[in-house]
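To whoever is on call:

I kicked off a structure prediction for a single chain this morning and the downstream step that reads the tokens threw a length-mismatch warning. I double-checked the sequence; it's 634 residues and nothing unusual in it as far as I can see. Pasting both halves so you can look.
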Amino acid sequence: MRKYYEKRSWLLNVSLLEPFKELRSLSLSRNAIDGCIPDEGFEKLSTLRNLEILNLGYNFFDDNSILQSLGAITSLKTLNLTWNELEGYFPAQELVTLRDLNTLDISVNRYNGTLPNQGFERLAVLRNLETLILDWNRFGYSVIPSLSNLTSLMTLSLSGNNIRFDEGVNVEGNYIIILLILGPILIAFSHFNLYLFLTTGWKMLSRLENLEILDLRYNELNDTSFLQSIAAVKSLKTLNLLGNQLTGSFPTKELANLTNLEVLILGGNHFGGRLAIQEFCALKKLEVLDLSDNYFDGILPPCINNMTSLVVLDISNNQFNGNASSSYVEASGRSLKYIDFSYNQFVGIFSFNLFANYSKLEVLRFNGQNNKVEIETEGSMGWSPLFQLKIIELPYCSLNKLTGSIPKFLLAQHELDTVNLSHNKLKGNFPNWLVENNTRLRVLDLQNNSFVGQLYLPTLIHTHMVWMDVSANHLDGKLSENIGRIFPNLVYLNLSNNKLEGNLPSSIGGMLYLDILDFSSNNFSGGVPRVLNTGCLLLSVLNLARNSFNGEIFVGTSQKILQMNDNQFTSITLVPNSTLDLLYLDISNNEISGTIPQWLGNASYLRTLVMANNDFYGRIPCELSMIGYFRPFS
């Protein structure tokens, strides 16, 4: 896609914009602009005295001289240069004239630092600069001290840089060179100086007395000592450390001082152990708590109930344990919108009706419990939820283990986006009302249950549905002929391992975005409609194995995995004008006769070919032996 836009790149004549004297906001983003016509640069906009917002993001600017011309637009308050191709040292001094600048975004470029005395400290004269976004460049640790001079900053985003340390930094003049000469004599001293160098920069951030948002995602940080300096920024409300390499216990002693903290994201690190209750409980203003993808264990501290403003609670992919009911967060029932307890080690019975009064609850995830948790949704007294869920994921939860009934509270849900109740041994007829009641449903996963009867479809077209898996149930009868019209935008459809019968609906050929189709292990019969190849142009995986299909197997352009084994097919044909991208082809246990098609030799990506138990005869085409990674299974 980017190459496509590069071919369309062009030079901008900025003077064409000069007549718009009252212009306040100008967006030229996503226009494949490669620069400006000589002498017709952005300095021409200096006459637009009212221009406050300029968005040049998602273009191909690659010359830092653009910043000098932008410095002439002194009325600017917001400047966005994200997703360009600017690189080298960031020339901060070119922007010192923008005294009203409030927001600067130079994210997703290739800047790798600043020159001495020309760094971000030069922007200290911009007293109104409150938001600085430097994400996904190549700034290293050395940029931290210069940022500490921007005392007006309220938001500082540094995600996706290598902030932990620049290995090539020249510490204390020629100190590293001296170390190479004198060898181990200075090793202890070098570590001491290096420690001072690394910690001083972080300590300098305490000067940012107005800083409320600090984003340090994906920076390979592996030492929590810097948090002692961060804790000195009392104004901090959001701290994002997602996706680093931080280890040890929960840094509560450092973070407990951040009494104004509202958002704490520690996901994707290597923290472990139990949460220190006293310090953890000091974070009473938290609205977002993300501890996901770490190694925390023990029980959730009861004081989490004191966090009455909590909106998002994500403790997924840890080792929290204890009775599942202990994970119930009572005091936040009026505020919680998002709960994810997935992939922990909880046990016991959990009564879902405890969430009945969570009026704002929208997302509930309880994945990966391996049936060690039993979730009961049908209270003896009955209950009506105050919430309207958007996402509910309760696979492997022994859901309503005694009755096997699908949760009745779902009857009252009308805004569902994702439903995953797979692997729960649920019984009864297929809940077509679940689809009928939720017209914006995108994902439905009911695989590996015990639903019976026909797969009745809703009457209305569901354009939002992209993923449907009802495999490994006991559904029978014929598949509705209009399935392709009811779900025209499906990407994934799996009805395998049921008892469905009859012909394959030709309307499936109208599913233009279908990528994976699995109808294997059913009782389907008849021929496979050719429109499946001519209509489903994105279909890469087709599995019709273990049915009673007959006639021709059609091989189309996009197909990479084709499993047609254990049927009654009598021939295999390449759709005219098709390009072979096959990786895997299994046509074994059919009734195909004749010579092996020579066009198979053109399948240069083919890795596995299974043709056993057919009636092929003659020579094996020499073209097949030319395929480098080909593994034949006869």
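Update from on-call: the warning came from a stale cache, not from the record. Cleared it. Sanity check on the structure: Residues 1-116+124-129 form a domain with the Leucine-rich repeat, LRR (right-handed beta-alpha superhelix) fold (CATH 3.80.10.10).
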